[in-house]
Design a protein that fits this description.
The chain is built from five helices and seven strands; from the N terminus they run H-E-H-E-H-E-E-E-H-E-H-E. The chain is of the alpha/beta class and about 150 residues long. Helix 2 packs across helix 3.
Length: about 150
């Protein structure tokens, strides 16, 4: 397995995980290419913060969902469709064992509609690339607010 290159997000992953353990929420802002999509989901899965459920990662574009899943599988030495996969309109590549699942907005909405009661059993919901970041609104939580991280380019 090739060693993945160092990315800017690697410097703050431990801090991010600590904030999530302490508060249960965080907002990470970083420029494109910092590693938000390919490093954060595996770190959450490996840390146990996401629990044992499936982690959904929102990608606004179908091609980006497939590419991100492929990249994580390559970097982590995982089997595409087993540990990491995707579900987009008319196409899916995941199994019951998939921990990290990239989905588009339509699939996320569909899942939320179908499993309103069960959605809380999803280990984690990662929202945060491209257009989705601009649509994300952070609200204060009872635990004392949202921890914010920002990587400066």
């Amino acid at each position: 397995m090739p060693v993945p290159p160092t990315l800017p997000i690697d410097e703050v992953l431990d801090e991010l995980l600590a904030a999530l353990r302490a508060r249960g929420n965080a907002v990470l802002q970083a420029p494109p290419g910092a590693g938000k999509t390919t490093r954060e989901p595996p770190a959450l899965a490996d840390s146990g913060i996401a629990g044992s459920g499936q982690m959904l990662v929102l990608e606004p574009r179908r091609i980006a969902a497939r590419a991100a899943a492929r990249r994580i599988a390559e970097e982590q030495g995982w089997t595409l469709g087993r540990e990491v996969g995707w579900q987009i309109r008319f196409e899916r590549n995941f199994s019951r064992d998939t921990r990290i699942l990239f989905v588009t907005e339509g699939i996320l909405v569909q899942r939320l509609q179908l499993y309103v009661v069960q959605v809380l059993e999803v280990g984690a919901l990662v929202v945060g690339v491209g257009r989705a970041v601009r649509q994300l609104q952070a609200f204060d939580s009872p635990a004392g607010g949202v921890e914010r991280f920002q990587l400066v380019p």
